[in-house]
Each structure stands twice: as structure tokens, then as C-alpha cells.
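Case study.
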Amino acid sequence: MTADSDLLIIGGGQAAGELAAALRSRDWGGSIAIVGEEDHVPYTRPPLSKAYLRGEVEAADLYLRRPDFYDRHGIAVSAGVAVADVDLEAQTVTLDDGRVRTWRKLVFATGGRPRRLPDSILRSAPNVHYIRTLADVDRLKAVRTDGASFVVVGGGYVGLEIASVLRSLDAQVTLVEAADRLLGRVTSPVVSEFFRRLHRDRGVDVRVGTAVVEYQYSDAGNVIGAVLSDGSRIAVDQLLVGIGIVPNDELAARAGIDVDGGILVDRFCRTSANDVFAVGDVAKVTDLDGEPPRRLESMPNAVSHARVLADYLSGVEQPAVDPPWFWSDQYDIKLQSAGLVVPDDELVIRGNPDERRFSVLYLCDGVVTAVDAIGSPADYAAARKLIAQRVPVDAGIAADPGRRLLEAALASAGTTD
Amino acid sequence: MPEVTFTQPSGERITVSADVGRSLMKVAVENLVPGIVGECGGDLSCATCHVFVDVPWVAKLPPMTAEEEQMLDVTAEEPTAASRLCCQITLTEDLDGLSLHVPETQR
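After joint prediction, the assembly is written out as follows.
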């Protein structure tokens, strides 16, 4: 029997687009199909909460490659179609319009969806927004911002980026974070405090250690007020909820593939089923040299998975070697991060947060494991190399902003020999 | 449509034509030009679309922003006076014939 496609990718986001292109750039000769729920060819999400929301770029600029790219390279894209069911034994998928497609190899690039507040807490209302897709941001762009009161629930990167754009569009913004600091899961207190001050100085009413305990509704069903745990009440014109992502792993689980808060894969993106793979936000990598399994929600991670899998399918077993990396733009501030921050890391601060130009190195047993660089690309670049090469550094020498970081690291490596 | 030539470290020349207004990084990625990664999508955050511009063309390109200059610190291969990030170069009719060299490594 001839399969409809040699490789079928479920999901049409960036991981899917990059995987298809990477396979073609490696001269992979099989047929490739992408089935995605959104009405678009694969596009890149990071600008959604930045330049796209600001109105500086158009939807077509978000497309990774123009629609004709896929035709020219033998990649069949079905947009606006969901996969309803996967049968591993028959090697088929059933689409939500009832059609059945056969495949030889299958890739889950199903991503994630915004974690929703339960209906018991927040009913769905026309002025409640979750931010993940182009359609979500188009909806947000259609509302009036000038002088309007926006409440952002959740102090993660997406919430902060959106708050910064809304401020530049003259909205009044209140940001509510239940934890005692912003970005608590991903960075150190010094970076959290930097962003709290940055947003406060730009006029965002930042409330940390505070949760919304009650939403108030108009007769028409819109949210008009939020009551906080400290008893205060905030007027709401628009409510944005950014409290994380839930991996879309249910389809894989129903098919009998191992999942545990994401689809479990090894470092080559192989799932527990033969010829079935998972990439991007949905994939949880389990064989990390003694580190706990991890699932990352980032565009660079999706691209990295796509490359690793394209190599693997082309006969090259080349696991990812770069540390995870990430960036965020808020106002005129650029943050670049690499590695993963662990709570008991030793902190080395280079430069001065008051000058909005500093970096934080995270050391574990004297080795740099992560960096947050604000307005300091040279430190970011140097730290990426140090993380990858596991060079031991002397914290005192590395903290001297008068020395270039790489030189400082080499000097400290010399002292430890 | 203007034509741009990307010369590979091997000496292989890849000439592509593209619409005015498109960034050179996107043009390269859409044409599967090896060695242009464009990992961040043109947000000046990854420096994986580094190119060396052939000298006659250097002065014809729009000047660099401070941000692009800073990000050239992050390239995998040592930048030179002819280095640019091609996500920051928008294709115009005047750039017809532009010639660029792709570095050995981007990341």
C-alpha cells in the first residue's frame, strides 16, 4: 500500500514548518504533509506579543516561508483542519472532517494551549483574552486601548511583553501576579525586581503577591471589575490571562503513546511508539544525563527539535548541543537568556541594574549554567560559550564588569588549574 | 526582481531573486540557502544570519543600528568590517546584483 505521505506532521506551528524545511534542505526525498488547526501556513509566534501587537508588522511577515514555498518543495499543507484520532497500528489519522490519511512516519507538533482559569472563577466573556495565536492577537488588536483599563493576570514573559505594548498604546495597565515576584519560575529575584521597577516606572500598576478573588460582570456578561486578595477593586475594560501553557498531548495519549505532562521523547525526539516523534512545546525530553525530564516552551527549542529530528530522519544522530536560549523585548529593553536557572545557583551580577545594562550569571559548583543578560549581548555571547563548554570560573573575577567576560573566565580557569 | 548571490564557504554560488521589501534573511531561508539560519526570525536576538558583504557593496547598504552592531558581538564567526546581519537588510532595486559570503559557522 502506498501511504498518503511518508511523513505526516500533526500541528502547523513553527516546529512543523522548520521540520519540513530542514528535511528539504537535507534533501530528504519522501513526501511531507502538515495538518494544522489554524488557518495559516506555519508562522512564528514571538512577534505576536511584540511587533505584531504594536502594529509594526503584518501577518504575512510572520509566515516563516511564503505559502508558495510549500508547493515548490513538495510539502502538502492542510490549514484549518484538526486531527481527531490517530491509529498507530493502521498508521492512519482521521481528520475532523472525517477524511482518513495514511502515513509511514508521524510527528506530533501539537504545541500547547493557554491554561484557562476555571469557569467557576472566570466565566468566558467577550472581553477576556488568552494570548497564543494570531487570531487571539487580532482580537486584542481590535479593542480600543487609548485610556482603557487593561488587567493582565500573570507576571510571566507574555504578560509583561503585552503590558509593555499596551502602555505604549496609552492603555492603563494593572498587572496581577499571585506569586511574590514576577517571572518567579524562570529567573532570580534580582531580574524579577528589575522588571518590576521597569514596568512600574513606565506606569504599569504592578501587584505581586496578590490574586484575583472575584470577578464582577456587567449585565451583558463582560468583566467590569476584579477584586484582589488585599480587598482592593480594579476596574476592567479588557482582561488578559497569561498563566501558562498546557501541552496538547491528549491525542497522543489516546493513541497509546507515553505522556506525562507532555509527550515523552528521547533526545532524538522519538516517542514510545515506533516511527512516531514529537517536537516543540509538546515534547518532554526524558534522557538528559541525570537531569529531570523537561519540556520547554520556546521558539528556539522548537527549532532545535526540528533540526535534531530532520538530522535523525536523514540518518545523522546529532542531539542538540546548545543550551536552551530565550529572549524578551519590553519597552526598549532586550533580555537574552541561556541555560536554565536553578533555585540554589550562586549568582554573579555584572554591571548595574540601575543603568539598565547588566547581566546575571548562574553558577553551580563554580561552573556557569545560565545567564540573563539585559542590554549586554557580549556577556550573553560569552556566557553561552561558557555554559556549553562547562568552564569553571571564579565568581569574584567574573563579577568585574571592567573585564570582558570571556577573558575573566579564562583568567579564573587559570587560577584553578 | 533583484538578484542576490550568496557564496558558500566551499565557493559554491547560489543566486536567488526575490521581491523588493523582503528581508535578505527571509529570502535566504525561503530558498534553503545553507548557512543562513535566522533562528530568531529577524528580531535581532540570535545573530545566526551573519554574512560578509562583498566590499563594493558595503557602502551601498543602509547603516547599522546600534542594536545590530551589538548583536554582531554574538556571531559564532569573528565579525569583520564587512559583517552584517542579513535580517536587517531589506531588498531594494538598488541592491540588484548584491554579493554576500556566508560564514563557515553560525552557531
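Observations recorded in class. The first strand of chain B starts at residue 3 and ends at 7. Helices of chain B lie at 24-30, 55-58, 66-71. We will return to this complex in the next lecture.
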